[in-house]
Design brief:
The complex is a heterotrimer of chains A (265), B (286) and C (358). Chain B contains twelve helices and three strands. In chain B, helix 1 crosses helix 12 and helix 9 runs antiparallel to helix 12. Chain C folds into two domains: 227 residues, 3-Layer(aba) Sandwich (Rossmann fold); 108 residues, Nucleic acid-binding proteins (OB fold (Dihydrolipoamide Acetyltransferase, E2P), Beta Barrel). Chain C has a six-stranded mixed β-sheet with strand order 6-7-8-3-9-10, sandwiched between helices. Classes of the chains: A mainly alpha (265), B mainly alpha (286), C alpha+beta (358).
Chain lengths: 265, 286, 358
């Protein structure tokens, strides 16, 4: 093995250490955790996981999160696809500045914008619904989806569109039956990033929900603070939040790097 | 060549509506707060630019801004070169590439408060793997809740842990898009490894690195959840970054006016820096 | 500058090649004289780029040696072979000016600054790049970029050979012709050995003094453009070079002569090799339409300007003839007359008739 390949190896080790510790904690009993330091769980227990899967306030947190993340991914893609097509195929007034404007929406300090968001979604009667979180997350996910999809679409020669029109395809039919399958890798990558950023965001999700649509991450904070220091339970809940992401990332593993490379600045 | 077509705006319309709904209405609300004063009971009084003047003169803001700048600059200085170095050391093809990428992307997919909680557990001096090792094996006196220096280092290491992978992925994407002929030509031209990096790899990574720096700058400037979960801004105010301070003012003291004014000021700073950087980096492009 | 000799060269991309089929290059022996202009011609995937990369040192051959002026350079890396290579897609250093691009290979070798400047001025004049020396290379057109890649090879006065790997692929058709004659002109000026890899016969035949035709990792013929055209050693050369390519008619061989569907065909000389599969090969340029010869039906007549291409059907085999005037009607019954001095028999693809005394 060349010494150079040690660099990624050491880095990955560094990444995995805290995750290992979280996993190890989740299998320890509360007594063991508070009793002192131990590198491996001395007495393996599934009690923490059992607690989560038998308590509706816990497992509904997961269902809520997955629901709004899925809705957000669908909305983001549906809106971003035609926009990305327009960016990749046409020049129009203001197109150059639009991307930067879209990007600026990441810059707003979410911490203070949370309150206006709360007021806005209360005013339109969406507070504490999955749709509210899904719509709010569009703020930063749509620009990202547009960026990634535009990159992939620009890689498809324009002749494909023209040939289809000559062959008598209508635009919607061309888009659905020819164009989309061509860029399905791009759609996958965009969906992955929408999923990712919606899944990890907490501040807005917490602000816009109370009971009905409360995300798992928010459930975690509350339980951890109210029920004292239940580290094992906290760790188990944390481990469970990593799993959906890990599954999704496994499916797009071959496209991640490509998705970035084709994006434009 | 793209065709000029103003009807393309119809394609962009759904995006505009959705983003504008989420961006403009809250922004207007914040602007509205920033020029008013409230004593609760939903009563508001015109305050003009008073909050802006007060904030710009307040030492608390200066201190928070200073800490924020220090934090952002530090993580950029660490994460960007480190990410590039790791990307350079990665194999370009083969079985290990997807494995590496999946493992590296893992931190990016963990909810932000879980990241904070995870690092909290990891660094506990008595039962955390890192905390325990530092104190009991390496003999370093480490307690994040008491030493501001330790808290700072921990927050920064956590951010490096959390986000360097994003830089790696972007830089790696730039690297694999370089055709093999460039390396061959450089070999024939007798270029050193440094020249290959300086004149081939770095220029080809410029676009993706621009994105990486922009994203890291913007996201680190707004960072809230992770450090708050980890340190709560302490000990003292030592890790109270801008967003944490903002939330203290807005929700802790319910001083909506000053908080709104402050957030607009710092939105403006972010915007100005990003725009400047974006313009500088893309100025040579056709 | 150097003479290049390839000695029993073989290459496989597999770690443990099992049989002949695993080799991308099958035993190659050839010598290129110092200062010549050579072309490697063949279809995509025939191994010509592999061969080029072996000469430049980017690929190490499985067996055999590469010799520059009799000296074995096989183990040397590309930068120590003193070669230059121009790639299919222009490779330029985007962030540098044209001037710095040209200076790069010299500076890397520690050439004195004033010498660098002299060389750049010289080469820029030759390539007509003087006005663009100060511009950033990234903003240039593909043909200018390709000129820079060439220039990076030319500035070095120690180069043994400059190699071109399909360098005109991305160039517009009208500029292709210009750049090609520029190349020819450069070769005459500086007389450095040049090897030009292409799948385009026009490029190869106009550029090179000597053309090597490759197919499936084997050199099928090496010769001047005239030799390749006049007397193809292999049916592949016959049909790959020429437009349309050489006609091939299945034939029977008996008593040193050949017959096509029972009709004897006069050849350049006696048949000296036998093989399972025998064919008569004759170029369309040497097929005439007259009162005698092989009976055929005209299927297509195409006036391509300078001459007329007649496609006829002779007992199920398609035969092209190139004539100057008086084309027959479509569907007409004609007789095809072959010029005996240019009519040959190929056995299993390789030429089987003895060359007539010149």
């Amino acid at each position: 093995m060349r010494p150079r390949s040690l660099v990624p190896l050491i880095y990955i080790l560094f990444l995995l250490l805290p995750i290992y510790w979280l996993v190890a904690m989740s299998f320890k009993t509360t007594n063991e955790i508070l009793g002192g330091f131990s590198l491996f769980p001395q007495k393996w227990t599934l009690a923490n996981y059992r607690a989560i899967f038998t308590d509706p306030t816990w497992y509904w947190g997961y269902i809520n999160s997955i629901l709004y993340v899925s809705i957000n991914t669908l909305i983001s893609l549906a809106a971003a696809l035609p926009a990305a097509y327009a960016f990749s195929r046409y020049r129009f007034l203001g197109d150059k500045h639009l991307f930067f404007w879209l990007l600026t929406n990441r810059m707003a300090p979410a911490a203070v914008f949370a309150l206006p968001f709360f007021q806005l979604y209360s005013a339109v009667g969406l507070f504490d619904t999955h749709l509210a979180v899904a719509l709010a997350h569009c703020l930063f996910n749509i620009p990202l989806a547009v960026w990634i999809l535009e990159g992939f679409m620009s890689g498809v020669p324009k002749e494909l569109d023209e040939t289809a029109y000559v062959d008598g395809y209508s635009f919607p039919r061309f888009f659905a039956t020819i164009f989309l399958p061509t860029i399905k890798a791009g759609v996958g990558v965009a969906a992955f990033f929408c999923f990712m950023f919606s899944w990890v965001e907490l501040l807005l999700a917490k602000t816009l929900t109370a009971v009905e649509a409360k995300p798992i991450a928010a459930t975690m904070t509350r339980t951890a603070s109210s029920a004292g220091y239940e580290l094992g339970l906290l760790a188990a809940a944390g481990v469970l939040t990593i799993i959906p992401g890990a599954i999704v990332i496994y499916f797009v593993r071959n496209y991640i790097a490509k998705g970035f490379a084709l994006g434009r600045v | 060549m793209k065709t000029e077509n103003q009807r393309a705006w119809f394609f962009v319309l759904p995006v505009l509506v959705l983003v504008a709904f989420n961006a403009l209405v809250p922004l207007m609300t914040v602007v509205n707060y920033s020029v008013q004063e409230t004593f609760g009971n939903n009563q508001f009084f015109w305050a003009g630019l008073r909050w802006f003047e007060e904030i710009l003169r307040s030492e608390r803001f200066h201190a928070a801004l200073g800490r924020q700048l220090l934090f952002t600059v530090t993580i950029l200085i660490i994460e960007i070169p480190l990410g590039v170095a790791i990307a350079l050391a990665m194999p370009r093809r083969g079985f290990w590439v997807p494995v590496c990428l999946v493992l590296m992307a893992l931190p990016l997919l963990i909810p932000w408060n879980v990241v904070g909680a995870m690092w909290n557990i990891f660094t506990l001096p008595d039962i955390g793997l890192l905390g325990w090792t530092l104190n009991n094996v390496l003999g370093i006196d480490y307690n994040m809740t008491q030493s501001p220096v330790a808290a700072w280092i921990t927050v920064i290491v956590m951010d490096v842990w959390h986000w360097t992978s994003l830089v790696v992925l972007l830089a790696y994407a730039g690297l694999i898009s370089i055709p093999e002929a460039y390396y061959q030509a450089a070999k024939i031209d007798g270029a050193s490894n440094w020249s290959v990096f300086r004149y081939i790899q770095l220029p080809k990574m410029k676009r993706v690195l621009t994105i990486a720096i922009l994203l890291r700058f913007m996201d680190s400037f707004n960072i809230y959840t992770e450090p708050f979960t980890l340190t709560g801004g302490g000990p003292g105010n030592s890790t109270t970054l801008l967003s944490i301070d903002l939330v203290k003012i807005a929700l802790g003291q319910f001083d909506l006016g000053p908080a709104a004014a402050m957030s607009l000021i710092y939105f403006a700073i972010t915007l100005a820096v990003s725009w400047l950087f974006y313009t500088l980096m893309t100025r040579d492009e056709p | 500058m150097a003479e290049i000799r390839l000695d029993r060269l073989r290459h496989s991309y597999l770690a443990n090649p099992a049989g002949e089929a695993d080799y991308a290059l099958k035993e190659i022996n050839l010598t290129w004289q110092d200062g010549g202009a050579f072309a490697l011609l063949g279809p995509s995937g025939c191994g010509k780029t592999t061969l080029l990369n072996i000469i430049s040192g980017l690929v190490t051959p499985s067996d055999g040696q590469v010799l520059f002026d009799g000296q074995d350079v096989t183990p040397l890396p590309p930068d120590r072979r003193n070669i230059a290579q121009v790639f299919q897609f222009p490779v330029i250093y985007d962030t540098m000016t044209v001037h710095d691009n040209l200076a790069f290979p010299l500076r890397n070798r520690g050439v004195a600054p004033d010498r660098v400047e002299t060389r750049i001025t010289e080469i820029a004049r030759m390539l007509e790049l003087e006005d663009q020396l100060g511009t950033r290379a990234a903003n240039l057109t593909p043909d200018a970029k390709q000129k820079i890649s060439m220039g990076r090879g030319l500035v070095r006065d120690d180069v043994n050979v400059i190699m071109f790997d399909e360098p005109l692929t991305v160039i517009d058709p009208e500029l292709k012709w210009k750049l090609r004659s520029k190349l020819k002109e450069l070769h005459q000026q500086i007389a450095v050995t040049m090897i030009y890899v292409t799948h385009d016969q026009t490029e190869a035949l106009t550029f090179a003094d000597q053309v090597v035709v490759m197919q499936d990792g084997v050199i099928v013929q090496m010769g001047t453009p005239v030799e390749l055209f006049d007397r193809p050693q292999h049916t592949f050369v016959g049909h790959f070079i020429g437009s349309p390519g050489m006609n091939l008619l299945p034939c029977e061989v008996s008593d040193g002569g050949a017959t096509f569907h029972g009709q004897p065909v006069a050849l350049e000389g006696p048949i000296i090799r036998n093989g399972g599969d025998t064919q008569i090969g004759i170029r369309p340029e040497h097929v005439g339409i007259g009162p005698h010869g092989i009976p055929a039906t005209v299927r297509k007549v195409a006036d391509v300007g300078r001459h007329i291409v007649v496609e006829a059907d002779a007992a199920g085999t398609s035969v092209n003839a190139i004539i100057d005037r008086d084309p027959p009607e479509r569907g007409a019954q004609v007789h095809l007359a072959f010029d005996p001095a240019r009519t040959r028999v190929y056995a299993d693809g390789w030429i089987a008739t003895e060359e007539a005394d010149p």
